[in-house]
Amino acid sequence: MSRAFNFSAGPAALPLEVLERAKAELTDYKGTGMSVMEMSHRSKQYMAIIEGAEANLRTLMGIPSNYKVLFLQGGASSQFAMVPLNLFTAKKKADYVNTGLWSKKAIAEAKRYGNIRVVASSEDDTFSYIPELSASMFDPDADYAHITTNNTIYGTLFPELPETGNVPLVADMSSNILSQVYDVSKFGLIYAGAQKNIGPAGLAIIIVREDLLEGRGLDFCPVMFHYKSHADNGSMYNTPPTYGIYMAGLVFEWLLEKGGLEAMEKINRDKAALLYDFLDKSSLFSATVKGSSRSIMNVPFVTGSDELDNAFIAGAEKRNLKTLRGHRTVGGMRASIYNAMPVEGIKTLISYMEEFEREHSK
Ligand SMILES: *Cc1c(COP(=O)(O)O)cnc(C)c1O
């Protein structure tokens, strides 16, 4: 068997142990004589899978009991609409921080339903930093304030959460959920598409404070976009993405076996430091993000020459270092190093970079 070191930003690498277990259980799940894919979502066996997944996610993230966990379809992008459709009050106003393409999409969608104020932006410098935020920048009368905790394309991470007082903080955490410890009680709502750091595409996870499900929302919100329809039915208002939830559940078990999010955060910080330390010393490669805004999940870097970037990526493919091309708006390379990327993957990448640097610095 040959497994690549897959640096894809998403859908992204999954832990081999998880894939092996799914393979072992694929055609006959625990003696049921059927695959999880073939199982009624209301069966006893499936209920144990979804309830187990939720319980383990609650343990991992320390989710307080006054928060609902929803397993929905539609990716993170549906949340760009669901958040305003559900969280607007009669005021219909919200504050957004613009830190990249995903923020921009969230802002554009929310603008269709209400008054959106962009409180800060890093667009002036290709989103290569997280703007300074202070409590006074946020409207105390807004229905909610929205951030993108980790910016997948540009490789930036909020070094700390903004202080928004009583205004519920909403976070698109698609590319760094489960990568570090967050205090869930600081948020009104967290959402994430699964395909970066949780499991296969097709599943989105929403963690929402219960009081936000009452007395808010726009009348015309479609029932499938209504959080409460799903919350009141244990994510079974309709058929949930059953296999994706099963896979996410296996990833949660794997994370618990690894020691939980505190242990993962340490591993992730160490992994990212290896790569950034190399980039900061390199005479050929450099990171596009500086200082405290650096992501520990997505690391964009460049040589400064398109020709060398292309040669580097072609050579990487031959060495089984896959999907390193950067997003078209940034160029160069991007190494996405989610939970499932082993430290050996980073070390192999760095030794290839050293070799490439030696060859091209003459
Ligand atoms: C990938 C990504 C999205 C879009 O996710 P989909 O599931 O494809 O809709 C949104 N936000 C962030 C931060 C992402 O990384």
Q: How would you explain this protein's 3D organization?
A:
The protein is of the alpha/beta class. The chain folds into two domains: 16-257, Type I PLP-dependent aspartate aminotransferase-like (Major domain) (Aspartate Aminotransferase, domain 2, 3-Layer(aba) Sandwich); 261-359, Aspartate Aminotransferase, domain 1. It has helices spanning 16-24, 44-61, 75-87, 101-111, 227-231, 242-257, 260-281, 306-318, 343-360; strands at 5-6, 67-72, 93-98, 115-121, 144-148, 150-151, 156-157, 169-172, 189-193, 204-209, 286-287, 298-302, 321-322, 333-336. A seven-stranded mixed beta sheet has the order 2-10-9-8-5-3-4. Helix 1 crosses helix 6, helix 3 crosses helix 4 and helix 7 (260-281) runs parallel beside helix 9 (343-360). The model has no long low-confidence stretch (mean pLDDT 97). The site of pyridoxal-5'-phosphate has 12 residues, from helix 3. Pyridoxal-5'-phosphate is lined by residues 10, 75-77, 102, 148, 152, 172, 174-175, 193, 196.
